[in-house]
Amino acid sequence: MPLKIASLLLKPRNLRFIVLTLIAGTLVVAIYHMYYGGMPDKPLPTNLVPADNLVGGIDNNDIDLAPPPLIGDSDYGNSNIGRQEEFHPARRNDLSGQDLRPSGSSRDTHQRHQLARGFNYGPTSTVSHQSGRSNSGRDKCFKIEAFLPDFDASKVYPNLEFDASWITTREYWNADFEKRYQSIVKRDKDSKKERARPSHNLPQVPPLKVIVIPHSHNDPGWLKTFEGYFYAQTKEILDNAVEKLTEFKHMKFLWSEISFLSKWWQHAHPTKRAMLQQLVKEGRVEIVTGGWVMTDEATVNLYSMIDQLVEGHQWVKAHLGVVPKSSWSVDPFGHGSVFPYILQASSIQGMVIQRIHYGWKKWFLDQQKGDFKWMQRWDTNGKYGIKCHNAPWDIYSIKHSCGPFPQICLNFDFRNISGEYSENYLVSSPITSTNVKQKAELMLEQYGRTASMFTHNVAMISMGDDFRFHRSIEWDQQYTNYMKLFDHINANKQMYNNAEVQFGTVSDYFKAVEERSYEYPSFSGDFFVYSDIFSEGRPAYWSGYFSTRPYWKKFYRETENVVRGAEILFTFANALVHQRGDEESIKVLNHEYETLTVARRWLALFAHHDATTGTSKQDTMNDYGFKLLEAMQYGTTAQLASIATILFGHSNNSRIQTDYELERFGELPRQLPLVFHGPNVIKKVVLYNSLGRKRMHLTKIVVMNPDVEVIGPDGQAIISQLNPVLELTEHNMIISGQVFEVVFFAELAPLSVSVFELRIAKPNGKSNAIRSLVYCKQCTSPSPIFEINSIQSGDIQLNNERLQLLFDRSSGFLLKVTKLKDKTSTNISMKFGGYASTDFRSGAYLLMPDTNTEQEIPFRYSANPVKVFIVSGPLYSELSVSHSPLLVSTRLMHTGGDMYEEAIFVQNQVDLGKHNGEIFIRFDTDIESTAKLNHPDFEGLDQPTLYTDQAGFTFEKRVKIPKIRYEGNTYPVNTMAYLQDETPNLRFTFMVDRSHGCTSMEVGRLECMIERRTLFDDSRGMGEGVTDNRPTVSNYVIFLEKLGGVIGSENTAYQKSLPTLSAHHLSQELSYPSFMYVYNDDKYEPLSGTSTSPSQPDVISILNQELPCDVNLINLRTLTDASLDFDLNLPSTNALLIAHRFGYLCTSGDCGGSSSSNNPNPLSLFYPNTTFNGVQVSSIVQTDLTGVSSTQSYNNFHSHKNLSHLHQILGEPFEIASVLVAFQQ
């Protein structure tokens, strides 16, 4: 019998079957290992999470009790918790008594005092400033390799045709392109006649297929305000769309701006709403991108770029029941690499872009690579690539879309409105039986030329323009005439080589391309700076808007901080009141949520590519400003109500106030002094830290008594500094004898509300605020409170234990920085200056300074000398200089730890008044920041190089291109830019508080535009200059790093161009400063409200642990209750939690140099046993970035949908993870 079996098995047919079975099994195992990181070293526990500890509301059939190690549960079972205790015996008692319910649960209590101090600074220590890096399993830290694409922007861009002769023609089409197109036509004709093989010299091209996409580009503010456009045009466009599309069964339509769609929905009759829902269901209206606006990609920060998309997607899912699958971004002025990642992480599968450099347009036509897969540099595994279509011609109008010849394309714009003139009227005529053949062939020639730019021979043709289709008759004209042309072509396929033309959507286009088995080439990088040639036949660089209207840009970022802070606090407070069953507070918070929703939407509106850019008319910009101010006010009241809920147990916020007033948009806030009515009065100062790690907050309070002391949350006095308050006149500085500034360093726990006290003290008390030493020129004081010292001759010096700063005696600006530890000095010369604008070439959009007109500020021959003022105390020293139009302060900390004491804090105020010009801040250093340019004309030559962020998320290396002027080498900077000398490993980082345009035109130089005032329009549609400048305060951080401590073996070549963790942390604190409020009640009583109640704790943390030091909480956002009417804007008890792991350069000092074995799973975004304090969680569900789709639909990397702990949320460097957190009611 065994011999018989063996003989059967050895038959060839059976052997083949056995071999194939073994191969298939091997592949299955390999795929499992690829996705799940391999099998564990020891068997997985069979019941890792006890059944009674599972997340409430999750079916046992829906959650894997022993998921693979990548999810992290095998590292966090009960047995591992025991091992964790062995490493940290000091915490054994805490863990042994802990309720091991799902993440978010704590001991079952609603007492406010039990929320206090429920916080640990990471698993290893309760006092460490920073926790250890979350990268156990790795020797030091994450290695970040760079993806190697088929073509890279950094290599292609320097070789583009910047100054070719064809530019003057304003057209990309040339004889070579025409020859290629004619060859395709000829081959098709020959193939049809002879049925012969295709030419050996040409690749076989499939038949022409054309997707014509009707659309209407609706700017939510530009020449008119948002409401002005809606009532004048957009409402009619959408009304017509649902009616005409219902009538015209073959027509389709795109819509992108959800801000307008939501407003239309409010006004629309239920019948029209239902018609729209049906059209969306049929795929005849495609919601593209689904953002609240078509966001700008140069001047918008990561938070707002995501948040406007969340707001739009949540609305679309609730009202239309769909998740957008395609993106349409045809009007932003250049494209960055961050938004493609955000789109892909939000379930978007394909995207369309339009405005990129004319050189890129030509290159894509040459290479036939206009359809590509956009990859992230850091995404080595290619998980986040997204299909991208570059619309090959200049802009999205009919004239510039059908093909290479705009005057021919005008034939196919059939809009003809009585009393209206347009250039298409001269050539366009209705389609009739007598002209249909001639017009169809003319159109097919243009479509064919467009398709010939792609190897798949599919053409996407946009049919629309700004605010098109707002007249009902235009729908009839366009549809009727196009259908006659389409019907003629499709009915005569043999005549037209099987060409096919139809109305369609973006998704239809990508589907058609996929059907032709097109292989997308991969691309990494970005498309800044955008430049056009279609207006004048010469390059025009759109880099002015990076810096235009800085007051608006700064106010936008401040509003973003307020709204983000309100989102996080509100979510926590809302969960608290629902679990307490506090109906009265629930009603108050419901109202606050309604106004918080308004704040979200006004903030999202300003992400629009004509808002944050500063490229709208003055009236529109003012309207945006009023909306931002309202958003800030609503966000502030939401914070106050939430703080009152957390501190007092009720949502009445009347007892807590801000310490400043801002009467109207366009002004600078004025800090109000605290008034003590009596010697025993205690003023409460409430500080809120919205970041997920501990921070030091420099708190400044204006008082009217110089003898005060500051008491910390632990009841102990803390060191404070008393500074003078200055009044500036034209010729003098007067030190006030009535008001003073008290300053103290507040140590704030992560995601916490902390309460400090200010008290009137006895004169010369041991805990009193220490009076600063004052040095000045041209200053007087009516009071003896501060002794005035004269400034010695020669250059000025400030120093602490780590840095020594040298300042120019004449200007008061920085000259040199010496790092005292390693005794190295670096020249860092800070200057301010200005250029004249080139008339009509430099405006809201464009930048073209006349660099030959440079003037330094302050002017060396000015009649009024520079005013210099220095204060020095135990906390910091600060040098301030005043000279119109500048007021500049440079601060050096004396305490706070390495990161703060090695940073240089700069604040400047610019008020141009009616002076025109392009105003810059410049740093000339001796840092040899250079690189080789990838261009044959400059082979072997070093060029000035800088590194710039993209939306505070990724970073690009920018090498100067000598062929381009100043404006073409200016790049957007949102959070930081740096120069780097690789030989001594020295880096100079300049961190900013809003969008700037920065450049490096000389080795070691970094120059950024900080203010612009231009009289003339730059002919890009706005129709006016930029003359509404306002006094603007800017905050910067200068950070000089000696990277000698870099862990060389751990950092890849790509990683060495990334910021350090310290730079990330400083930048985060600059972007998201803590909030200060005052408990303004002169009668002291315990914060609990009654003297018999337990004393209210002075520190309340949202989480019981900080986040790992390389993780940032982007948002914790309450979701609108969709079980009721979504438009009631009532809050649910569900929240969208979004967290991000930084990509960074590893150094030996990361996270205070603590051990890297603190987090058992290096990918976890939270430490083990991290929970919400005082509130319980019923479920944690993985989702896409915007919270509308399961992660399984867009990414298989995280394969489990339901989680049971926060530490199961995973992310590699740069990745952003989102989960839906449901709090128990």
From TrEMBL:
UniProt remark on cofactor binding: Binds 1 zinc ion per subunit.
Pfam family name, one: Glyco_hydro_38N
Domain Glycoside hydrolase family 38 central intervals: 540-628
Top-rank EC class of the record's enzyme: hydrolase
Superkingdom, natural source: Eukaryota
EC number(s) from the headed UniProt entry: 3.2.1.-
Cofactor(s) required, per the database record: Zn(2+)
Signal sequence annotation: none
Membrane spanning stretches: 15-35
Coiled-coil regions listed in the entry: none
Gene3D superfamilies referenced in this protein's UniProt entry, alphabetically: Glycoside hydrolase 38, N terminal domain, Glycoside hydrolase family 38, central domain, Golgi alpha-mannosidase II, Golgi alpha-mannosidase II, domain 4
Polar residues bias locations: 122-135
Keywords in alphabetical order: Glycosidase, Hydrolase, Membrane, Metal-binding, Transmembrane, Transmembrane helix, Zinc
InterPro entries in the cross-refs: Gal_mutarotase_sf_dom, Glyco_hydro/deAcase_b/a-brl, Glyco_hydro_38_C, Glyco_hydro_38_cen, Glyco_hydro_38_cen_sf, Glyco_hydro_38_N, Glyco_hydro_38_N_sf, Glyco_hydro_57/38_cen_sf
Region (Disordered): 87-136
Keyword Mitochondrion: no
Similarity remark: Belongs to the glycosyl hydrolase 38 family.
Protein name: Alpha-mannosidase
Lineage of producing organism: Eukaryota, Metazoa, Ecdysozoa, Arthropoda, Hexapoda
